[in-house]
Design goal:
about 210 residues, mainly alpha, Butyryl-Coa Dehydrogenase, subunit A, domain 1, 2 domains, about 65% helix
Amino acid sequence: MSEYIAPLKDMQFVLRELADMDAVSALPGHEEVNAELADAILEEAGKFANGVLSPLNWTGDREGAKWKDGEVTTAPGWKQAYSQFVDGGWNALSCPTEFGGQGLPHIISAMVEEMWNASNTSFMLCPMLTRGAIEALQLCGSDAQKAMYLPDHQHGEAEEQVHRADVLVVGGVHPAAPTGGGPMGMVVMGIVGRAAVGIKDCAHRGS
């Protein structure tokens, strides 16, 4: 199986020659962002994509996740990879700094996420859904809801704390249809009602 190689030169060319990094640095909160910082982030993200995420495709395809006695066990290496993902702060690159995010511009986080999705789409499905919940909370949540849920989501803890079904449901329902995709969606919406923001309203706005 061939391994993924991040197209760093192409991305760096876009940042240096096509994107106006000076204009980005002039935006509030992005004063410290420059081409050198972007290069460093992309290089580290590339290493993670090339050396950690891409090799997991083999074990994921060959062994997959297993369900036994009410528990799901991922393929070898996946749990450790997610721990590296969280420890590296990758879950919150462009998230608000007031809730533990790094506040980087989306032009950088989009390139990072492109590398990870290209190297291992299966791995990125869970962080992708949680990112949807973060954006829903930012758009529709009250101050109290943001303070309660955004720190865990941005730190990447929502996926790890399996016993907190309310947090996990928020991370999984936002991208779905307004009713969550059917009868089960209606049940999920009932759980969301006690747990977080008015996700149903956000879904209707996006439909």
